[in-house]
């Protein structure tokens, strides 16, 4: 199809000519200007796939270097079955005593690492995507026990340890505060991973705190969980008003 001119008319303005083209997107580049070619080996333009590619690269380097680790954050939730709704980075947990070894492994693999203003993580960047290497999760040091509870799962065809659903939810609940109390990410996780989460443990660890308690109450009202699931109480004869509890 040959190029053609269209005319846009905005209220109170003179008509403005805009050139369209048969080129993808319908916009022709300025005369004499060619779009730069993507660098060799560049990650896919799709942001979701780019984060997955970065995740796989980091996991391969950490597996090769030896210190225990586990995938965390939104990519870990994806590994357990949630839809891909990645934020702006991929997160990995390592113990504080293994942080230097893990950083060296990533640097030796060609990933640029840098100290962050926060004293509980180190940041990196690969293929335009951010990497968080975390050694303190929700103000608590990453422990051997936490990493031992991780399960090995395939993340876009690469096997790696992934934090358990209970530990993922636990870290999200521990991070709730007056400055961050958005349940928007927590609710889909609770709905989809309900049967994989140890609600009694979370009740024991968080019910005394106002924001996690509010979230538990929301889950009960929405019938995502039942009170008996998190307390072990006998629900015989109970109703939604609390009688019989």
Automatic annotation (TrEMBL):
Gene3D superfamilies: 3.30.460.40
Chain segments carrying region Disordered: 1-44
Biased composition (Basic and acidic residues): 1-13
Alphabetized InterPro entries for the sequence: NT_sf (IPR043519), NTP_transf_5 (IPR039498)
Bilayer-crossing regions: none
The protein's name in its UniProt record: Nucleotidyltransferase family protein
Organism: Streptomyces katrae
């Amino acid at each position: 199809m040959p190029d053609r001119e269209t005319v846009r008319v905005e209220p109170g303005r003179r008509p403005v000519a805009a050139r369209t083209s048969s080129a993808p997107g319908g916009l022709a580049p300025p005369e004499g200007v060619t779009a730069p070619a993507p660098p060799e080996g560049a990650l896919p333009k799709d942001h979701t796939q780019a984060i997955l590619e970065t995740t796989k690269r980091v996991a391969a380097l950490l597996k090769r270097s030896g210190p225990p680790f586990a995938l965390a954050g939104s990519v870990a939730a994806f590994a357990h079955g949630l839809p891909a709704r990645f934020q702006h980075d991929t997160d990995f947990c390592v113990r504080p005593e293994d942080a230097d070894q893990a950083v060296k492994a990533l640097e030796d693999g060609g990933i640029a690492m840098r100290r962050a203003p926060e004293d509980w993580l180190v940041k990196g960047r690969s293929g335009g995507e951010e990497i968080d290497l975390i050694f303190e999760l929700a103000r608590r040091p990453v422990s051997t026990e936490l990493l031992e509870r991780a399960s090995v799962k395939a993340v876009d065809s690469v096997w790696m340890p992934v934090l358990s659903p209970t530990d993922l939810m636990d870290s999200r609940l521990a991070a709730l505060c007056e400055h961050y109390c958005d349940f928007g990410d927590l609710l889909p996780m609770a709905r989809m991973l309900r049967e994989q989460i140890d609600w009694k443990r979370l009740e024991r660890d968080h019910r005394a705190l106002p924001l996690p308690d509010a979230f538990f109450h929301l889950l009960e009202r929405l019938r995502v969980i039942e009170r008996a699931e998190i307390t072990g109480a006998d629900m015989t004869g109970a109703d939604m008003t609390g009688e019989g509890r």
